[in-house]
Amino acid sequence: MRFRRNRTPKVVPNQEQMSLTEHLAELRMRIIRAALAIMIGMVVVLAMYDHVLNFVLGPYRSLCRSKPDDYCAGAYNRQTDTVSLAILDPVEGLATRFRVAFYGGMILALPVVLWQIWKFVTPALHKNERKYAVSFVLASVVLFGFGGLVAFYTLEAALEFLINWAGQDVQQVFRVSSYIRLVTLMIVAFGVGFIAPVLLVGLELIGVLTPRALLKAWRYALVAIFLISAVITPSGDPISLFALAVPMTVLYFLAILVGWLVLRSRHRRQAKEEEASNSPAAPESSASAARD
């Protein structure tokens, strides 16, 4: 006769019940997994470095293709449709390769990194907070990616403006590290600028700001948006400034609309709950009255 041993289910400790040592062990595990994902992404980008660099050079190549031969100072080859960048340091090429691999690895590993952050933070959140957290994370990722695309496709016009204003007697010879740095800073600046409305919506939900107050201050907000765009735009050209400021303005008013809709829905739900709690008790049933 066989006896089957009862197995007790494994209990996962709650975030509030975990000790400091367990918190640190959990955080270390999440960091290690995120770092491994970034390293794997770096290896993938290193293996495809030539293709990645060719893609990043797309705006510069498109600009040189549309201009005369002497416009890019011999950096563009029309026969092969390629552009070449300069290296003024023996280690600059290797350092740039690893820098591109690191940035690309972070982009490829972004879903894994966000998942590890989410798994670490989720046990400490309530049900409503988890719902808002998912919406905020998804909105931030989408807006950051959209801002990066806008920056990348605005880069050609920005480069043309910078080359034209450099002077007729100045020959443009771009260093590979300088070009990669410009592209990276442009993408980061536009991405951060595009996720700023998510912060405004968060401040509206916790009661720090109200949609009415943001709508009244729209003139000051426009001035602040253009000043911030002028400061964080690495190229400093007016084309990039307007390409960043105009979408930020649209997103500012969109944040006011989203905050107003969410707060109105919350107030209606609270009013229904209060009405239900203040309603008189239901009369006793006829069967209960008959027993009495």
Could you characterize the architecture of this molecule?
This protein is an all-alpha fold and 292 residues long. The protein has one domain. It is built from 11 helices and 2 strands, in the order H-H-H-E-E-H-H-H-H-H-H-H-H. The chain has a two-stranded antiparallel sheet with strand order 1-2. Helix 6 (127-164) packs antiparallel against helix 10 (238-278) and helix 7 runs parallel beside helix 10 (238-278). It is flat, with a radius of gyration of 28 Å. Residues 8-13 and 282-290 have low confidence and may be disordered.
Provide a short characterization of the protein structure.
This protein is mostly helical.
The number of helical segments is 11
The residue ranges in which pLDDT falls below 50 over 5 or more consecutive positions are 8-13, 282-290
Kindly, what is the distance between the CA atoms of the first and last residues, rounded to a whole number of angstroms? 57 Å
User: Overall pLDDT, averaged?
Assistant: 83
Task: Please describe the topology of this protein.
Layout: H1 20-47, H2 49-56, H3 58-65, E1 76-77, E2 82-83, H4 92-108, H5 110-121, H6 127-164, H7 176-205, H8 211-216, H9 218-232, H10 238-278, H11 286-291
Antiparallel strand pairs: 1-2
Helix pairs in contact: 1-4, 1-5, 3-6, 4-7, 6-7, 6-10, 7-10, 9-10
